[in-house]
Amino acid sequence: MTNVLAIDQLGYKHNFKTILHDVDLTLEAGKIVGLLGENGAGKTTLMRLITGSAKGTGTIAVCGDTQAAHHRSHVSFTEQLRGFTANTRVDRVADFYRTVYPDFDGARFEELVTFLQIDTSLKLAALSKGMKEKVIIALTLARQVNLYLLDEPFSGIDSMSRKRIISSIIKWKPDDATMVISDHYVSEIAPILDEIVVVKDQTVYAHKESDAVREEFGMGIEAYYESLYEGSVQHD
Ligand SMILES: Nc1ncnc2c1ncn2[C@@H]1O[C@H](COP(=O)(O)OP(=O)(O)OP(=O)(O)O)[C@@H](O)[C@H]1O
C-alpha cells in the first residue's frame, strides 16, 4: 500500500513554546482518518504544517514529495475564505479556485453545491456560519487530490445536515485519496473512520485502526479516546 503522508520527527515552536515535537506519522492511501485531540492540542497546526503554510523541523513527505512548496498541489485543506471580501459571490470564489488549482473539478463543485443546498449567487456576507462551512466543504472536496484535510468542517452546521454530510462523505472521496477529519463530535464521525490519530502532550500520542481499537480494547472509538485522558488504557 502506498503512503500518502509520511512525517518524520516533526517539531514546531511558536514564540519559543513547543507546540508539537517528535511527531512521526504515516498514512496510507485510501483511508478516512479522524484527527482527535483537546482544544489547543495542535491539530490545526499539524494540518498547516502538512500544507506547508507553517514551517517546522523534521520532514513531511506528501506522496513522496518533501518539498513544502509542492504540498498544496497534493493537499486540499479547508481554507477559511479570509482572503475574499464580504462582497464576493460564492460562484466567484469557485472561479478563483478553478484558476488557482488545475485539479478543481467544476462539475463536481456543482454536484456538491446541489447536495449541500448552497445558493452560489449569494455574497459571502449573506452566508450564515453554517452556510459558510458548507461552501468551504464544497470548495475543498471539489479538488481532485491525494490528501484532504478537513479541519472541524462541521462545526457550525446543524445536526441534521451534519449527519447527512458525514454519511455521504465517502462518496466525495476519490478511492485512492486519504481524508483527515478533525472534529470534537467523536461519536458522530466514528462510524466512517478507518483510523484515528490522537494529538496529546504535543505529539501524536496514538495512531490506531478503528477495528483494532474495537478488537484490542473492546470499546468504541469515543470510549477509547476518552480513556486516553483517564489513563485507563495504555497506548503504544
Ligand atoms: N501562529 C500562531 N499564533 C499563535 N498561537 C499559535 C500559532 N500557531 C499555533 N499556536 C498555538 O498552538 C497551540 C495549538 O493550536 P491549534 O490551533 O493547532 O490546536 P487545535 O488542536 O487545532 O485546537 P482546537 O481544537 O481548539 O481547534 C495553541 O496553544 C495555539 O495557541
From TrEMBL:
Alphabetical list of InterPro entries matching this protein: AAA+_ATPase (IPR003593), ABC_transporter-like_ATP-bd (IPR003439), P-loop_NTPase (IPR027417)
Domain ABC transporter: from-to ranges: 5-226
GO MF, one example: ATP hydrolysis activity
Keyword ATP-binding set for record: yes
Pfam entry (one): ABC_tran
Protein name, as recorded: ABC transporter ATPase
Keyword Hydrolase: no
Signal peptide (residue range): none
Keywords for the protein's UniProt record, in alphabetical order: ATP-binding, Nucleotide-binding
